[in-house]
Write a structure and sequence with these properties.
The structure is a single chain. The chain has one domain: Vaccinia Virus protein VP39 (Rossmann fold, 3-Layer(aba) Sandwich), CATH 3.40.50.150. The protein is globular. The chain has 9 helices and 13 strands. Strands 8-7-6-9-10-13-12 form a 7-stranded mixed beta sheet, sandwiched between helices. The mean pLDDT is 93. The protein is of the alpha/beta class and 298 residues long. Bound molecules: zinc ion. Zinc ion (ZN) binds next to loops. The site of zinc ion has 8 residues, from loops.
């Protein structure tokens, strides 16, 4: 298999890398992947991950719910319920931090189009970028959205977007630095980037270690904490204006993690522990499973 081997840190270019964890792909292949940590900035990444041509088969499962619409099983049903509420909170976040009431919004990794559809109804002029052809077809058939393939980011004229959103997408993208500089280029001077990422310093990540579902190797290449994401943002001339927790994620991630551990009544145990992690994140937002970073141009 063709893999990508990194000999330096993509955030700070440091070349002192040490083994952090070995994680299993519990979702698709059961293959094991090594996570390395940069000794300089603390950033963790998946080493020797499949390249663009090979990675497709690791997404090839009906359980990969962000690319499908299946409603089978308790975890999926809860996910779909949570999605309705999540759409409301995502659109509220955009309204709270945008410099304009409505304008031009780009969603990178727009999936099946639910978020774009929500924003379209709020009078935003929306564009989506989505790598999966089946997800693009779905978004078109269900919502009439025309979304674009990956390379489109680099064709957008500079300083033309008010908002760029990425909901749990950046951790999947091989071209991490090019994507960050691409977002900077297309945002207007008072534009806002809204980037949601799993948080490897969350209470649940610490608890589940290699079973933490949000490591999700080899689909997740980059494993951020608030401090290393801030470094990446600054490197691309952004300042982090705000960090917001996503309160639903501890529940979902804990249920999945318990399932991966083979726990009896995984959903129930995961929900209970998720509630505990949720309470912890109320006390310290940076301990939440997932964080949304609001970035402004410097
Ligand atoms: Zn580093």
């Amino acid at each position: 298999m063709e893999t990508i081997h990194l000999s330096s840190c993509p955030v700070c270019s440091g070349n002192k890398l040490k083994k952090e964890l070995t994680c299993t792909d519990f979702l698709v292949s059961n293959e094991k992947f090594l996570l390395l940590k940069c000794e300089n900035c603390g950033f963790v990444f998946t080493q020797d991950f499949p390249n663009e041509e090979e990675i497709g088969r690791y997404y090839d499962t009906p359980q990969y719910i962000s690319h499908s619409d299946t409603q089978k099983g308790l975890i999926n049903s809860l996910y779909h319920f949570a999605r309705k509420i999540a759409m409301r909170s995502k659109s509220n976040l955009v309204s709270d931090y945008s410099a304009v009431k409505s304008g031009k919004l780009l969603d990178i990794g727009s999936g099946t189009g639910y978020f774009l559809h929500t924003m379209c109804r709020k009078k935003w002029i929306v564009t989506g970028i989505e790598k999966s052809e089946s997800a693009r077809v779905y978004a078109h058939e269900k919502f009439g959205l025309n979304t674009q393939d990956s390379g489109y980011l680099f064709e957008i004229p500079e300083e033309t977007k008010d908002i760029v959103t990425m909901w749990h997408v950046l951790e999947h993208i091989e071209s991490l630095n090019d994507t960050m500089s691409g977002i900077y280029r297309i945002l207007k001077k008072d534009g806002t980037a809204v980037i949601a990422l799993p948080n490897k310093e969350s209470s649940d990540a610490r608890h589940y270690k290699s079973y933490w579902a949000a490591y999700d190797v080899p689909r997740h290449l980059w494993h951020f904490s608030p401090s290393d994401f801030e470094l990446l943002a600054e490197k691309h001339n952004f300042k982090v204006e705000k960090i917001k927790p996503m309160y639903f994620d501890p529940f979902y991630i804990s249920m999945l993690s318990e399932k991966y551990k083979g726990t009896f009544a995984a959903a129930l145990v995961g929900l209970t522990k998720g509630f505990f992690f949720f309470l912890r994140s109320l006390g310290n937002k940076k301990k939440c499973s997932s964080l949304v970073y609001i970035l402004k141009k410097k």
